[in-house]
Amino acid sequence: MKIPNSCRDISGLLLAREDRSLSLGERLAVRVHILTCRACHRFEKQTLVLRGALRQWREHQREEGDPR
Amino acid sequence: MSENAPDIASLARHLEALRPSLLRLAQLQLRNAAWAEDAVSETLLAALQGAQRYRGTAQLKTWVVGILKHKVLDQLRHHTREPTLADAGDDDADELETLLYRRDGHFQEMPEPWTDPCGELQREQFFAVLEACMEQLPARQGRVFLMREWLEIDSATICQELGIASTNLWILLHRARLRLRECLQQNWFGDHTS
Q1: Within B31-110, where are the H helices?
Q2: What's the rounded Cα separation, in Å, for the pair B35 and A28?
Q3: Interval B84-114: pLDDT, tens
Q4: Which of B25, B101, B114 lies nearest to residue A45, judging by beta carbons?
């Protein structure tokens, strides 16, 4: 198996992480890559911001009062 | 019995007031106006029939949205076999990837730092942009994405419900997330340098 190490691979795994659990090898590849890659580090932060925002949106749909 | 009647009438009014936001959610998830109408009608009917299980207006929306999620899922199940749901077309994901990555797999552009968009003052605006971006996803991507993020169904169950292979689901979700990220970068995070 090819070891994921391009930004394309790593950001792909960071997106996949929202929908499935990564294997140990994948998690390791992500951690090692991010240590030295500022772009993927930023990308990871973005996925976390979006994760939080989607959670808030979901809660908002439940709790928001009658619109207008 | 008769003393219940005004309550039912007022419940019906409150429910009717919720219809537009229910319809918006159903449409976002189902991507089909007729299915969305059916899901919402069934929801309102079920809410009226279940009126005695419901107390007080404070939690009305929570309760009704809970019902809606079930009705929407029923619609998805019911229409699973239809080609519209399984149709592979309508995608230009490769373009998006070329826009984002160089040939050697590096990012074309440095991803920007994003800050939490859900602060008190801007969340309503942000949610409107977020929903517009979700609406712009190709229908199949939008459906599975909303199943994950709104219905909160795990991936294995989505595969079962829709009768698709997990590799197909991963591809759809991957594209949906990439596309959503791009849309939000363009329409929210790019402009809001806060």
Answers
A1: 33-49, 60-78, 83-86, 93-100
A2: 44
A3: 554 555 566 678 888 899 999 999 999 999 9
A4: B114
CA distance B153 to B164: 15
**Which CATH number describes the domain made up of B87-189?**
1.10.10.10
Strands annotated E in chain B: none
Q: Which of B53, B83, B82 is nearest to B66 (CA)?
A: B53
Q: Which of B191, B111, B11 is nearest to A46 (CA)?
A: B111
Per CATH, domain B2-78 is 1.25.40.10: no
CB contact under 8 A, A15 and B150: no
Residue A66 pLDDT: 44
Domain ranges of chain A: 7-61
Confirm whether the ipTM is greater than 0.95: no
Q: Using the 8-state DSSP alphabet, how is residue B88 labeled? A: -
- Within 8 A of A57 by CB-CB distance, chain B residues are 127, 130-131
Question: Hey, how many other C-beta atoms are within 10 angstroms of the C-beta on A53?
Answer: 20
Structure confidence at residue A1 (pLDDT): 57
Distance from CA of B67 to the nearest CA of A (A): 11
Nearest to A7 among B21, B101, B155 (CB): B101
User: What is the domain partition of chain B in residue ranges?
Assistant: 2-78, 87-189
